[in-house]
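In response to a reviewer's request, we include the raw inputs and outputs for one of the modeled complexes. The two entities were modeled together in a single run.
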Amino acid sequence: MEVSRHWRLRQQRYALVGEVCPHCETKIFPPRDICPDCGQDAKTLYQFSGRGEVFSFTTVHDAPAGHEGNAPYTVALVRLDEGPMLTAQLTDLGEQPVEIGMPVEMVTRRLREDGDRGMLVYGYKFRPRLSAA
Amino acid sequence: MRDVAVSGIGLVPVGEHWDRTLLDLAGEAVLLALHDAGLERVDSLLVSNMLAGTGETPQLNLGAQVADWCGLRGVEACKVEAACGSGGAAFRAGLLSVGSGLVESVLVVGAEKMSQSLGRVTTAGLATAADADYEAAHGPSFVALNALIMRRYMHEYGWRHEDFAPFSLNAHANAARNPHARLQFAISEDAYRSARMICDPINLLDSSPIGDGAAAIVLVPAERLRADRRPNPVLVAASGAATDSLAIHDRHQALHLAAAEASARQAYAQACLSPADIDFFELHDAFSIMAALSLEACGLAEPGRGPRMGLDGDIRPDGRLPLSTHGGLKARGHPVGATGVYQIVEVVRQLRGEAGGNQLARARIGMAQNIGGSGATILTHILRTA
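The model returned the following structure tokens for the whole complex.
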């Protein structure tokens, strides 16, 4: 398990910290230091609200190694309110059917674990939005 | 750049070769291609492979290893990797080396060994084509990434799942006549509709089967083939290559294969052709949705209208634009790092008139498109009869 890899991503995984382009105002997630729209330097940090909507989704039954314990689970493309899209699991769904366009919000959940004694990896997942805001 | 021609091809059937190694498979394809070319040695060897460096017993440095195994010890050799697009990328690298004049002959061999790992290990290996930190870390399998695209595509354009059936039915019907195919049987529309769901909306019969396999091609300057007076020479008319973001979520348009469009435009321009001039197309039908997206990006169908070509029968061997004439990824099989080389070998078989039961009536200009990842690395090649 690569501890430093997960540590490096802590601001993104726990707080959805991306960037905003000082030149064209484009909001960027994941952060990449170069604006994908105008190609200029973009290193200004920007914290996303965590609100968005489901752009697409599917259910994984045959999980890749490391994720088998969680299967089946729902993976989605989530369009954040500020513009960018990201890939994440949906959680806390209960009996609620998932639909394209469904409003969701970010929560922190366990992404994977490495056996009984290994590291626990936490990060963002999205649940159906609770608040009207 | 000087003109380059294909002087030899070789391939082994795609399947579960439990008794054979990656080297063994690559070696057979190499020797078949050398024999076909009438050569004993080449100046350079390029090996395309995706997964040998993943799994429980990783092996890298395949260039030297395959060269030594094939009796080519001493030649320049290295591996080319671009996930499922490795084969097309290696072919392009070979084309550039011969075209540049730096070498006189190149052997491109695609080889993949997928039957020895457990399913979840292979699934994790295939997921390395996606972004490790921002896609794979969140658990989507490679099928799931394609399912995300397919569901959104159906939502935006109003297609039903069964509208994609013709892509799979055509591929299987063609594979039934191809002794090198992994799945040599036809399927019915009922079977397609009722197949086991993998990642909704993608079911088993939307999906290509993995497999072990190897295919090889010898490239030489075109003038050399002319001097040798070889029958049915095949020329490489164009090579286009482009990239997009690794992650679907980073793309400007999730339903458009921008790299397919860019590489196809380059290829059409080099060959001085328009999309309507293409006689047949070996596309990257790893999943039925990718066939639709590829047709649209290459200017062969209007955006959002790809499935229409299947429903109208245009893609069958007797149609306007035959697709996957040897079964495609869907039914010939998808030995990932080798697939791009299989595609071009199949184009050459058609152009030479050696495609057996799959031979098309009209095969003078053929196109092959190979995709690495969910649309990140895309190679488009056009070959033609001389």
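As requested, we also summarize the result in words. Chain B is about 35% helix and 20% strand. The two ends of chain B are 17 Å apart (CA to CA).
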